[in-house]
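hey can u check if this looks right to u? its 75 residues, i copy pasted from the old doc so theres a chance i mangled smth
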Amino acid sequence: MQVMKGIGRLTNAKLQEHVGEFVIVTFFNGKVLSGRLGYTKEFSAKYQYKKPGYFTIGNCSFKVSHIKKIQVEAD
């Protein structure tokens, strides 16, 4: 398990390195999600543009700025 807390500022580029891997994400609001990290390229019909910089776990999408801590699990 690799914990990415305290490595400096977590950026989109750093998080994109772990797309497709199993992760446990802790958000600033205290919510914890686990699953395969994905990157959304979906088109937002509501806002009429692609949602840049959004990541997914299951059907939950979020931005890197919402993450307090991430753990990357070994497969």
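The mean pLDDT is 80.
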